[in-house]
Design a protein that fits this description.
single chain, mainly alpha
Length: about 150
């Protein structure tokens, strides 16, 4: 399973991000490309422990089954709900958000497993660093596919 600790996976994500333009249109959802990159940056800040939202009730019931299905290759559903702190609705500059996310990706990879939070994911619950790294790839892939890249 691909994860963001792997140099080849980071290179793939960066190449796909480079294909995004201000004219890129989503195949689903409401976010534009800049907002999606900002959203992915917020998700990485959760993985790093910079944001620690509390567990949701629904996540306590269904979270482990949901993450296990993602780890078995089931793609994230279109319009899957995220945490309110990760919602981006204001206008953003694509190049600024691309550079911010590139920086976060480099930091996440450089920090490795020791840089991952021990705080549970708000929906999926307790994750190992390897699970955080795999989920972050799945999440980025989901949003890059949203824009056809």
């Amino acid at each position: 399973m691909k994860n963001l600790f792997e140099a080849a996976t980071i290179a793939e994500v960066k190449q796909r991000m480079a294909e995004l333009t201000p004219e890129s249109r989503p195949q689903w959802g409401r976010m534009n490309a800049a907002q999606a990159l900002a959203h992915c940056g917020i998700a990485l800040s959760m993985a790093a422990g910079e944001l620690t939202p509390p567990r949701s009730l629904l996540g306590r019931v269904f979270g482990r089954a949901a993450i296990n299905s993602l780890f078995q290759g089931k793609p994230m559903g279109r319009n899957a709900a995220g945490h309110p702190t990760a919602q981006v609705t204001d206008e953003r500059d694509l190049e600024t958000e691309r550079q911010n996310l590139l920086h976060r990706l480099d930091s996440f990879q450089a920090d490795g497993p020791a840089g991952c939070t021990r705080h549970p994911h708000f929906f999926f619950g307790k994750l190992t660093p390897e699970e955080w790294a795999a989920f972050q790839y799945i999440h980025l892939d989901h949003h890059l596919r949203q824009f056809g890249v």
